[in-house]
Design goal:
This protein has about 160 residues and is mainly beta. The chain has two helices and eleven strands, in the order H-E-E-E-E-E-E-E-E-H-E-E-E. It has a single domain, classed as Immunoglobulin-like.
Length: about 160
């Protein structure tokens, strides 16, 4: 009985992996984007599309990043700039259009961003396809890429697809 309990405990500990991706910025943080759902019908105008930009610290020590703001430099849909004071940015790419194929967002907030060890956080943009179309972006079937930045440092992107 003791062996079964020990084996079960070990199995549970092994399955509790770290969800933070490997560090991919010059400051040691991990930046990645997630989109849910990843497939959405262009006929479904009411389902909410969730696009999240995550920033995580996979290390064993706190990481502090001086943001460069205030003043906060909003890029209004263009490529985010390093040290602009912004927490993060989201841009949508499709084909040759690397920044303007969908809604974009910039999040701001502090002069120093502090990330405790083994900690991740995110900012999220939500939109329905009805709002997407009303914003002037085409609802065309195919693949799109959600690109995310932390303080002007681009992380891993996330594909999503519009289908009929």
């Amino acid at each position: 009985m003791r062996f079964v309990l020990l084996a079960t405990s070990l199995l549970c500990l092994c399955s509790c992996g770290d969800d933070i991706v490997a560090p991919n910025t010059d400051v040691g943080l991990s930046v990645w984007t997630e989109v849910s759902p990843s497939f959405i019908s262009i006929r479904d105008t009411t389902t909410v599309l969730h696009m999240r930009v995550f920033v995580g610290n996979k290390t064993n020590h706190e990481i502090r990043v001086v943001s460069g703001g205030p003043p906060y430099v909003f890029t209004f849909g263009n490529e985010p700039l390093p040290h602009s004071g912004l927490w993060g940015s989201l841009r949508i790419a499709r084909g040759a259009d690397l920044l303007h194929a969908g809604p974009s967002d910039d999040w701001w907030g502090d002069s120093v961003y502090v990330f405790p060890a083994h900690h991740a956080e995110y900012n999220e943009q939500t939109i329905t396809l009805r709002e997407w179309k009303a914003g002037g972006w085409a609802l065309t079937t195919g693949n799109y890429i959600a690109r995310g930045w932390f303080n002007g440092r681009e992380g891993n992107s996330a594909p999503f697809f519009f289908v009929r």
